[in-house]
Write a structure and sequence with these properties.
- There is one protein chain.
- The protein is an alpha+beta fold.
- Helix content is 34%, strand content 19%.
- It is built from 27 helices and 40 strands.
- It has an 8-stranded mixed β-sheet with strand order 12-13-15-22-19-18-17-20, covered by helices on one side.
- The longest helix has 28 residues.
- Bound molecules: pyridoxal-5'-phosphate.
- Pyridoxal-5'-phosphate binds next to α18.
- Pyridoxal-5'-phosphate (PLP) binds next to α18.
Length: 1011
Amino acid sequence: MSVNKLHVYTVSEAEALFQEFYGLAAKASGLPSERDQNFRMDTAKGESCVLKLYAPETDVCWLDAQDQLLIELVNQDAGLPLPRLIENNKKATTYKITDCNGQDRFIRALTWLDGEVWNKAAQKQSLDFKQIGELMGRMDLALKSFMHAGADRTFLWDVAQASAHTAFISLIEDAEIKAIVESILEKFSKETASALSRLPRQVIHNDANDYNILVDKQGKISGLIDFGDFIKSHRVCEVAVACAYAMLAQKDPVGKICDVVSGYHKVNSLCEEELAILYDLIRVRLAESSCMAAQQYAANPENEYLLISQKDIRDLLRKMEQINPQVVHYRLRDVCGYEACAGSRKLEQWLLTNADKIGPICQHDLSPENVLVLDLSPLSVNEEGIPRSAEDATNVIFDLMKDAGAAVGVGSYLEDRDVYKGDFFETVDPDEKRTVHLGIDLFLPAYEPLYAPLDGIVRVHNDNTRDYDYGPVVILEHKTDEGQVFYTKYGHLSRSSLELWEDGKAFKKGEVIGYLGPYPENGNWAPHVHFQLLLDLMGMENDICGVAARSEINVWSSVCPSPNLILGMKTKCQGDVTRSSKSIREERARHLSPNLSLSYSEPLKIVRGEGQYLYTEQGEQYLDMVNNVCHVGHCHPRVVAAATGQMPVLNTNTRYMHDNIVNYARELLATFPDPLEVCFFTNSGSEANDLALRLAQNYTGQKDMLIVDHAYHGNLTSLIDLSPYKFNRKGGKGCPDHVKICPMPDGYRGPVKWDDPDCGDKYAAMAIEQLSALQKQGRKPAAFIAESLLGCGGQIVLPDGYLKRVYEAVRGAGGLCIADEVQVGFGRVGSHMWGFELQNVVPDIVTLGKPIGNGHPMGGVITTRAVADTFFNGMEYFNTFGGNPVSCAIGQEVLQVIRDERLQHNAAQVGQHILGGLTEMMARYPLIGDVRGRGLFIGAELVSDRETLEPATAEANKVVNLMKEKSILLSTDGPLDNVVKIKPPVCFTIENADQFLKEFDVCMALVSQAR
Ligand SMILES: Cc1ncc(COP(=O)(O)O)c(C=O)c1O
């Protein structure tokens, strides 16, 4: 074992010192360290701390700076996971002692932080690297105004002092690493250092390496330790250090630094100039590390700690030689919300506004009649799945063009293709290839001429002779009249074209710049030109990518805007890029409001639906038991046909006469009892409820509303006011003055139970109390609004007689009665078309939503002639989209499918089957406190104690997530979020119900056992 000469204290001496200065008996154990001696001290009481014994000749000013820095950090941001200084019995946090050699040393104790070091964390693969950035961003914010003479020092671990490392390069033994380090440091001295000198400076921690960051069992950062490397330097160096270590031993090192940087930027914005040199600085830090290790190892070969992570650093330095630094720079800009390639949108605008100045690139008319857009992935293999030769592909493609009467075949921009062969389509990530096309291909006969679309000069010309490469390729450089430089690239040309090209040669718009090449000289492809528009050649010149990795698509689509800006084809020639789940989450975070939530602890990416099933990208099938919107089944073919039948014919508004709106109105109103005879069409349930509110307030001349507790009626301002589910929960502003809340008639959890023969009357009496309270204030109700079965309230069936009594009282007081059927209507309750019919009442207004369009955004309001006529007071009700011919065609088809497929009857039968199964399970699992519902609107309420009704919220959540593992989608609801809610599409079958019951049984057993 190596011996560190600076480490003179034994474990028992450390214990004695701790007793002497901190007055506590503790067990010491040594911790690894380079210079100082550190011990973990564990007291008998179970408390722990770190005892630090600094190496002789440690600078007092530097130690004081560390004390002040820790104090400043805690003062500025108390939530930072940092150790706290412990005062000793001399009232000092850092104290001088003399060691056995008569040398002065300083002793200091810090609180212990729990957690594993990041590098060794059990769940290392799934750690979220954004956390590192966020932590360091917060640290730097907290240190922004901190200054201490001890931080203003010359220090070799300062990235900004990289040039000082040149002296150590010769000590690096590995020749390849030595050369890499040399070139990194040379670039730093020549270019980066001066750019760095202009960037913001402050005191930074400067050592966020993966041995200094601690994580808890959930993978969350629980601590940052080791403040010995702090220094006043450039803020971006902090990020560079964190990134350098984050990249080590990673399959996707650039992805990791994107995470770190986006985390940092979220809390502490980085400027574009910092991002421009960040990747260089990361490389500098790694180069410095190699130099320091070589130098220190030479001086002190027995200290193995010096070599920690050197192998990973060498591997990373080699890997980074394969990574294009400009791509990294643009990725970093993208994750920070800057335009990935600055100027891309500006060029796009210039090309759009100067379209008339752009000439054709080929001799063919590119109008829709003359082009055929090809799907190249399936065409690249033959019927047996064997890749086609260039000759075979040519025959197939040109035959297809001939059949379509098209002179030009088109391969799309951003098409994700499975056609690329050869190792130059590999990336540093073994799991990813470059597959997304950045140009537009025009398939034309070999030897046809190509023309310059704008004046330009030859910037790059070459014969890329590898198989499946470009063959002869030319890149022209152009300039906008505002001086912006951009490029057009033409690949797969003929060898004879090479004679036309020389460096800097000017081509006028319309001049021949080359000819399409035949295979094999064109790279061995069917004859076509790969035409690409670029803002930057990224230092790659003739090897500039024409195809990109999916993970880099934000960058490449910014560097290479659509070439159709030049070609001007009216045909769709752009593919839809599919993203990884991680990328979708990042894009959501970047471009959507965080108010949008995702379901499940591991959210699903669903790409297809059919009937009661949903499918992931990988084709995994899920049984959908939550979606009461796609009521007659996802993508029901008849509903789809109704939409696609009407969409190409006409879609206007209600100011023109059209059959669809009146036919639909007749058919819909026929399902309602008299006197409900007038309908309005809206675009959502919220709009329907808002209109209902206006109708009621207009009819009665009153404003006050009676509502049921825990209800949700929609996302408009007027409806948040009527939704205790929102106004009484997180972010809510409480009950507004014009609203009175009636207790929820919950026969399970409420004060009156189901088995009370007067249950309905008693809850109605509670509602009437609220009405009386209103009247006592000298006010009258505009309306009482309630769902016919309570959804957000927890799938509650109203007790018999409830609505009848309440409606009578409200009407007696001059108010109207509104039934919100947005969740439960259209036959879901099985025995009836509408939920209110279960209660033997006829509302004055009924509102419709969700299932009405089977997923198409629609809503509706049904009311009486009297209410509608009163609303006709001179002000037009105009709704741009409500009642349009497409929506009406869809709505009508949904009604007919419900009828033709007998779906109401199905809801009754399958619902009964599920209720029966769950009720039987309730006898076996005490966790199931209540099972209730009508038709396919069912709830199972989980409780941990049937007497106290303690909600089993965590268990309900667990069951839902376990069921997802069994490919069944459910969710929870209710005021206590402990009700498993069941509301599948009404085409749900008995077999589906049996599958659900079987798996639910298994999950209930698992969750019950785990308690
Ligand atoms: C009972 C009820 N009413 C109204 C709405 C609002 O409908 P939309 O989201 O279509 O605006 C909802 C939506 O969840 C609802 O559950």
